Amino acid sequence: MTIKNNFLNINSLSNDEIKNLILLAHEFRNGKQVKLNQPIYSANLFFENSTRTHTSFEMAQRKLGLQSFDINPQTSSMQKGESLSDTVKTLQAIGMNCLIIRHKATGWYKELLADPNIKLSLINAGDGSGQHPSQSLLDLVTIDDEFKKFSGLKIGIIGDLSHSRVARSDAEILKHLGAQIYFSGPKEWYPKDFNNFGEYVNFDEIIEKLDVVMMLRVQLERLNQELVSSFTPNNYFKHYGLTESRAAEMKKDAIIMHPAPVNRDVEIASSLVESPHSRIFRQMQNGVFARMAILATILKNQGLLEEYKCKS
Ligand code: CP
Asked: Residue ranges of the Aspartate/ornithine carbamoyltransferase carbamoyl-P binding domain (predicted)?
């Protein structure tokens, strides 16, 4: 699959496509402007809560000059039983060129891709515990900012691995790009297939070797009631969190990342969220430029955007 019409899984893109997206995001951050060849209409359809992804896609749409619509599933006719597929076809009939969708169903887009009547562009803003490809792109942009390479970097992804689409899509793409991936967190939350991307390690034994310490949010909303009742934030923080004493072991040039929202003093000490090592708010800034790059690439491939040139 290429990025021609849709952006659904960053791990299906070629290295050149990823490199171009990263370069383009950097160019947008440096003030690059593009011109649309015709009016473009884009709708955001979020079935799960979001602040960063939703707002930064909307910011990216506005910065590129797209007309953006916010469709609230709670007030849409999906509440009367209309399917996702019919909703997508309805929005297409009304004139949308592009839909950005977050949905709790892993692989929500597969059925839509198989429908020959759906021709508008689909962008995955997170599918269940599958992928979060625009987050992965902004994470790549943030790591590239810092190290100008991926190959050979030691990256730790720490925390609630079993529920994290960020962990899955980041680990897969970073391994593909040559990074060495280490996982830690509660062993019972470690999916065995993550062995395909890296190895499970003791956080305290690996932290001094890491270039990137990527902490994950504990996704209480995805835990079953029994686990929620037995979850104790202080205990989690002590055993798996990025405490000040663990952070003191980090390399001088290592960075802290977190996709956010952050549970302060659960996954990471509150004092570290805005510390010199942290790139957490930088990730959010880069999210706008990464999403501009995704939208612009799709529009360019469809001939809807004036030519742009990536600096190499
Ligand atoms: N990181 C991320 O996806 O944040 P939101 O859930 O706020 O979009």
From this structure: 6-144
